[in-house]
Amino acid sequence: MGHMEDALGESMIIRSTISPSLKYGLQFLGMWPDMTYGIVNRLLFMLSILIMQFFQYHYVFAHFKFNEMQNLVDSLTATLDYSLTIVKLTMLWKNRRVVREILVAMDTDWRECISVDRYLQVMTSKANISYFCSNAMLGLNTIAAILYLLSDYALNKDKSDNITSRSFPIKLTFPFEAEESPAYELLVLTLFLHGILNVFTVTIVNALIFTLVLHASGQIDIICEEFKTLSEEKTPYNGNFEHSIGTLIERHNKVILFSKNLDKLLSFMALMQVFWNTLIICSLEIFFMISFHNEPGFGLVKIVFAYGGITIEIFIFCFAGEYLRLKSKSLADAAYESLWYNMSPTNGKNILFIIMRSQKQLSLTAGGMANLSLEAFASIMKASASYVSVLNAMY
Length: 395
What we know:
Elements: H1 2-8, H2 20-28, H3 38-62, H4 69-94, H5 96-113, H6 117-158, H7 183-231, H8 239-294, H9 298-337, H10 345-358, E1 365-366, E2 370-371, H11 374-394
Helix pairs in contact: 1-5, 3-4, 4-8, 5-8, 6-7, 6-9, 7-8, 7-9, 8-9, 8-10, 8-11, 9-10, 9-11
């Protein structure tokens, strides 16, 4: 990506759709191209998560009792969230060649935009949105994670007379005595930092999805602008006009290939996101009903932050799919609104082929079985609301 940064010069601030914070996150996860110790980073990080998962599921199985339903549901939420992180990282690392192709394509697109001001303006606006969204997601998710991880201490402070054991930020079972100082303080700090790191990892993946879709939409906007320019040409039969159409077709094919790589990267990840988030939402709703009837207070705030984070996470996937679909529809509309009927027969047929291809809209899928859209998000939220209504009636 260094060629792109040098070419834009010192006067430009925006050099890529990928924000600096997202770039550092991808480097930390070992996903940035040509990293020296990328494999070591991936192995160490995955090993730490697997160790956490072992102790988390040990806690879940140990408290799999009806009279400990609150502890079980509370622990199950974080446990499933960690499991989802493992799935996401595994899919990213498995498809690292696809990630590399995507990043190289983004680099090429930006270098091609340098010589045309209107192209650069479109991509810069998309990059500004990407920077803002990436930083906002990192900031908000970090605050929510801190409040969630520290909530148990606030709860125990209110019930200090009934405390029989010292709590940890993440519920798990250790094979040794962990509640004596200084081991307890060291473990609390380690678990707290690891929990923040897990949220950071999830946020980086979500920010990457949003950034890639914004980049694809920027390229689609450029094609739409070119169709408007073609319609204003006074001599649609000259060689330059035919060359412009050929460039449009080539750029359109690149967008199609980019979206296919994006779907290949996210398809299984999105399927697991929907499945796992459904389980987590159900767990949070059970925890909510128990806390609402038995222990209203700060515990409800903890559930609200967790529920909000999970909802935003699935919304990002669905919104990305919806946004890409609408942008591909706008491409078909722009091609149809061009003066294709005043062009030469060859150029007119090329435009018609673009219109026909654009009718097969670009999309992101969940395992290739369902398109990610706002309609899918609404269905998930509707099922969630129905589930909580049934729980409230039965409790």
